[in-house]
Structures are given as structure tokens and as C-alpha cells.
């Protein structure tokens, strides 16, 4: 599916696991159906929220194939193909492209970090090799390095650069790269608590953890802003801040999987080193979910 004009709420989809640790494909298909029925504008698989760091290559490809087939072209499917090894990111990108994803999310090189020119080529090499749109992923809190505004400007001119998922948490950084935005290069918020502020700087939506549990709310908030009803979008952002914060009171995706389990959409199983959340955090999460009308 063409994702040229993708806007709104792209869910960073969790990967459901069975108690024995295997991927629960029945639940995965159920989550896809849940999002298609509730206004989600696009689906990202194999991101941080999908626990791809603890999955095998075969599992990654099987999950991506399952989602692509279940979606059947109704919304864009984006595959996370990031690695701290450029060759591995390139290989995975080509594999996911072959499976039929509509776009790729490519992260800056974590742990080894690299220098300015190395980060540029890490991302550009993937875009040179594929023929689907690519979203750069800036999340220095996870990777230990940022895609500099100068590199964003250089990379934004690449014909396969769809845009950037901006998750630095810095309005200043988002403002610094806003001049790169155009009809051909877009920004998505990567922070659920900053969607409306980033949209005020030109972002066209969000790649969202919050949307895992409240897809209609996130879709409607983005749609309101894009339709010019900034006040409705602002209210939705502010009114849901406690739920958003509770979804990140422990490392993602621990709380969101606990929330989805409480909603009956999956079993609460993780891949180590992730571990079920502490009781006090769980109480806070459930209280926020009740406040948002997600559970009784």
C-alpha cells in the first residue's frame, strides 16, 4: 500500500507471546483486527514495543508476514529493520521488503554509536538498497546517539526517505529539524506525551504505544489537529496524560502488555530480561485505565 500520504496514528504493535515463550499468532491476528476496527492509520511491527531485540530472525520475519497478510493492504505496514550493524540492517530491510511491508523504520546505530559520517552512511546505505519508503528513527535515550540536525537535512533529500520518527523528547530538536519537512519528508512524534506539540511544528501524527490500548482516541486526536480543530486535539492530549505516563512508568513494553492483558487482548508474557511490573505500578496503570474508560 502506498504510504506517501500517511498521517495520523501508527501503532507500535506489541508481539504477543504464549506462556512457553513462542509467538502467539492467533492473538497477533486479533490485535491487527482490533486496530483495523478502531481507526489505526498504520501498523509498525518489530519495533521496541514489539520486543524484536529478543526475537530470532525467523520469528521477526514470521511476525511481519503474519501482519502483512492479515492487514491485506488496508493500512500501511511498516517493518522495524534497525540494527547497530549496518550490514544486518540492510539484510533485514531487504528481507522485510520481500515480504511485502510498505515501509521501513531504520534506527541510528546503538551501542557502537559511530561518528557523524558513519551514522549518515548507516542510514543512507539502507535507503540506497531498498525501493520502499524509509523512516529514520531518532531515539537517543535508547541508542546513546542522536541523528544530528545536519544529518537529518542531508538524509531528508534521499528519494527513499519518507521522514523521521522523532523520539528525543526535545521540542528544541524537533524545531531544529522542522525546516527539513516537506511534502516528501515528514515527521512523526515518537513520544505519546508530545504528539500535539510536535504536530504544531509540522508532524503529521505519531508512532504510538498509547494507540495499542486506545487506538480510536489517538486516531481522533491526530485527525482533529489535521482538520484544524486544535482545541479538541489539545484536550485529548492533556486529558490522557495520566494514562500515557502510566504506560511508561516502567520500561516499554512492560506496562502496555499488562494493560492489553487486562483488556483481554493477550496473555501477559514477556521475553527476558523484561519482567512483570511491580504491584504499585500496576495499581497506577489500572487506575489510569479506569479513568480513561478502558476497563471497568
UniProtKB/TrEMBL annotation:
| Thylakoid found in the keyword field | no
Q: Please name one Pfam family that this protein belongs to.
A: DHDPS
Task: Give me the reactions it catalyses.
Answer: L-aspartate 4-semialdehyde + pyruvate = (2S,4S)-4-hydroxy-2,3,4,5-tetrahydrodipicolinate + H2O + H(+)
Q: What class of enzyme is it?
A: lyase
Keywords recorded for this protein, A-Z:
Amino-acid biosynthesis, Cytoplasm, Diaminopimelate biosynthesis, Lyase, Lysine biosynthesis, Schiff base
Q: In which pathway does it act?
A: Amino-acid biosynthesis; L-lysine biosynthesis via DAP pathway; (S)-tetrahydrodipicolinate from L-aspartate: step 3/4
**Annotated site (Part of a proton relay during catalysis), which positions?**
48, 111
Listed binding positions for pyruvate are 49, 207
Record-annotated active site: 137, 165
State where the protein is found. Cytoplasm
GO MF terms here are: 4-hydroxy-tetrahydrodipicolinate synthase activity
Instruction: Say yes or no: keyword Cell membrane present.
Output: no
- Under Enzyme Commission nomenclature, its number is 4.3.3.7
What this chain does, per the record?
Catalyzes the condensation of (S)-aspartate-beta-semialdehyde [(S)-ASA] and pyruvate to 4-hydroxy-tetrahydrodipicolinate (HTPA).
Subunit structure comment from the entry: Homotetramer; dimer of dimers.
What's the family?
Answer: Belongs to the DapA family.
State the name under which the record lists this protein.
4-hydroxy-tetrahydrodipicolinate synthase
Which source organism? Paratractidigestivibacter faecalis
Its lineage opens with:
Bacteria, Bacillati, Actinomycetota, Coriobacteriia, Coriobacteriales
